[in-house]
Write a structure and sequence with these properties.
alpha/beta; 6-stranded mixed β-sheet; binds adenosine-5'-triphosphate; binds magnesium ion
Length: 257
Amino acid sequence: MGESGMLELKHLSFEVPGEEEAKEIIRDVSLVVPDDKLVVVTGPNGGGKSTLAKLIAGIEKPTAGQIFLGGEDITEKSVTERAKLGIGFAFQQPVRFKGIRVIDLLRIAAGKKLSVSDACGYLSAVGMCARDYIKREVNASLSGGELKRIEIATVLARNPLVSVFDEPEAGIDLWSFQNLIEVFEKLRESISGSSILIISHQERILNIADEIVVLKNGTIDKQGPRDEILPSLIGTSAAVEECRRLMPLTKGAENHA
Ligand SMILES: Nc1ncnc2c1ncn2[C@@H]1O[C@H](COP(=O)(O)OP(=O)(O)OP(=O)(O)O)[C@@H](O)[C@H]1O
Ligand SMILES: [Mg+2]
């Protein structure tokens, strides 16, 4: 296995059968997540971001195109094989595991013996008081935000070549969010030979990106260094367009008044 986390998507497409014709959710996406970089994918709801993450993790298989990790073609590899090769994934909606304690989950993720104090370190990193959680079962008794943070901690424990986080901010409170930004910043500094892909709508996460990719209608709408892309997203024309689209409705409503 090459010790490079460079992830490369080449002409990736993903179709699902539709009522009349196949629906293309990802359309000819080519993207490189270089070593040592933090890439943030953003874009409108339904744009295909989570689908792209699932294709990278191997949960879905592309209908066309290829995925390379450190130069190796992993398109046909299973989720488990990809995890072994170094792809770590935190879902937008995490999975609960009945009968497994938080510490077990962290140990499975790390793939090695993990002391309680190491495990606690990962939980503290995501703003959790480890002592209260380490022996808890990863079941429905955990709140959404707790579960989400535990899942992020498992990716940190695994320390993969490519870490993929799908909307890590979802359900996370303001205080823990600040913590999370710091976690990503630290991760970004220490990722020599590996890379991070974060899917996010949050300006503060976009702010720490090396590169930003805007995915819209299943294709890459914009892509480039943060300083190039970010100004075009904030206070954006997209927002203006959206308002224009709504205007006629507002006028109509006035007429009825
Ligand atoms: N298996 C499937 N069958 C049919 N449609 C699907 C399937 N998977 C995803 N879609 C559709 O593809 C589109 C992209 O979904 P996806 O979850 O990737 O969007 P997203 O960019 O992550 O959105 P959000 O910002 O809301 O998380 C959506 O319209 C979704 O309904
Ligand atoms: Mg999504």
